[in-house]
Amino acid sequence: MQTFFQQLKTLFYKHRSVILYLFFGGCTTVINIVCYTTLYHYCAVSNAASTAVAWLAAVIFAFITNKTFVFQSKQTQLKKQVLEFISFFGCRILTGILDVAIMVLAVDVMHWNNLVWKFISNVIVTILNYIVSKLLVFKK
Question: Can you state the angle between helices 114-132 and 16-37, rounded to 10 degrees?
Fold first, then answer.
């Protein structure tokens, strides 16, 4: 009979990539929202520019954590590592455009709460990014 901690460990290893993706996705979301809020509210940078800069900071953090911890990429050849980065960044550009579009529509056009919509946008983008990363970027 397994103890609770053994069951928890088994469950973790069974769903490791999803659990770690959600954890680091949460960290990425915090980075994104903190950067956005700092630029938009405290530095008077436009909504679209704040979203774009926050996206870039989040993508850099996400690439490092996804490659290392979530998908445990073992690529050692420089050429393949560069291709991983290019494909990761390329896919994230599409969801980055979606993030900016959601924020411009929700905040600039509809005048809805920017932080609520930043969070909603991040949830949508995080789900799409996981699917794309798993299927296209860090495939086994």
Answer: 140
- Distance separating the N- and C-terminal Cα atoms of the chain: 33
Sign of CA dihedral 102, 107, 111, 117: positive
- Give the list of residues 6+ apart from residue 138 with CB closer than 8 angstroms, or none: 66, 67, 70, 71, 73, 84, 88
For 98-135, the pLDDT digits (tens) are 999 999 999 999 999 999 999 999 889 888 988 887 78
The whole-number pLDDT of residue 11 equals 84
User: How far, in Å, CA of 90 to CA of 5, rounded?
Assistant: 40
CA angle, corner 19, sides to 106 and 17, nearest 5? 105
Q: Which structure tokens are listed for 65?
A: 């954590």
* Nearest one of 140, 93, 126 to 18, comparing CA atoms: 126
